[in-house]
Amino acid sequence: MSSLDKYRGIIPAFYACYDDNGKVSAERTRNFTQYLIDKGVKGLYVGGSSGECIYQTVEERKITLENVMAVAKGKLTIIAHVACNSTADSMELAAHAESLGVDAIAAIPPIYFRLPDHAIAQYWNDISSAAPNTDFVIYNIPQLAGVALSVSLYKEMMKNPRVIGVKNSSMPVQDIQMFKDAGGDNHIVFNGPDEQLVSGLAMGADGGIGGTYGVMPEVYLTIAKLVSQNKMAEAREIQYEADRIIYAMCTTHGNLYAVMKKIISLRSGVECGSVKKPLAALIPEDMPIVEKCRGMIDDLIAKCATIK
């Protein structure tokens, strides 16, 4: 088996789990980890956008990863996103992740200042140097980071032997093809935008990492299975229904992650808490939409269960 096979599949982006006072909860983090293990996913992407990383302290991110690893080590592929605006903080998180035995670390580029490619490459290589025995995944999300990964920068990063691929969350599906061409068979490209998993897989993505996977993992596992069976019309039908759920979940006052955590609680009893400020928590007026989305998810998961 290729050493990269452990990355091929459906990998939910892990949600930050808080107690009722807004502090990172070790117990809820472990419970949510087990919940996703039981769903049959390939791995977890910890500490990324869905983990509210940009608003968390270094210590909060460490607590989350430690408790995920306490449950998932040896059971799932774990990719830890470690990027901070500070290179030193990023390197600290990278070393910590390696000490816990994660499969890979990942990082967005530095945000706010528009840095030249050579400075971005130095930032990523510095982070990678703090975890010298761990694979490195570049996280390309230009709509939030403010800078897009170019093929030339990717080729420069491939000089680092620990770089194994890209989590590509840019919207053009063409980018997946370009990064696959650049990296070849020895590199992994993940589809990032949940709304186009079918398209990404059809274009050659090796798997998907997604922010809405955690609230309906059965749906994305079904999409991946149908694409692998070349049942593209059926896969597209499930994708469309999943997209309608995503669009509906984005219509509340509360942040999307607050909506999804509440739906998980309603569907399974697994508590993840709310979201960290400045992300907006749910308000009572959101609950009819939350309940509607819960029903849509129930119906789609039931439909997926009938697909062989």
Automatic annotation (TrEMBL):
Any one Gene Ontology cellular component term annotated for this protein: cytosol
GO BP of this protein: N-acetylneuraminate catabolic process
Keyword Lyase among UniProt keywords: yes
Superkingdom field: Bacteria
InterPro entries: Aldolase_TIM, DapA-like
UniProt keyword list: Lyase
Pfam families attached to this UniProt entry: DHDPS
Keyword Lyase among record annotations: yes
Active site residues according to the UniProt entry: 139 (proton donor/acceptor), 167 (schiff-base intermediate with substrate)
Positions annotated to bind pyruvate: 209
Molecular function GO labels: N-acetylneuraminate lyase activity
Homology family: Belongs to the DapA family.
Record's protein name: Dihydrodipicolinate synthase family protein
Lineage: Bacteria, Pseudomonadati, Spirochaetota, Spirochaetia, Spirochaetales
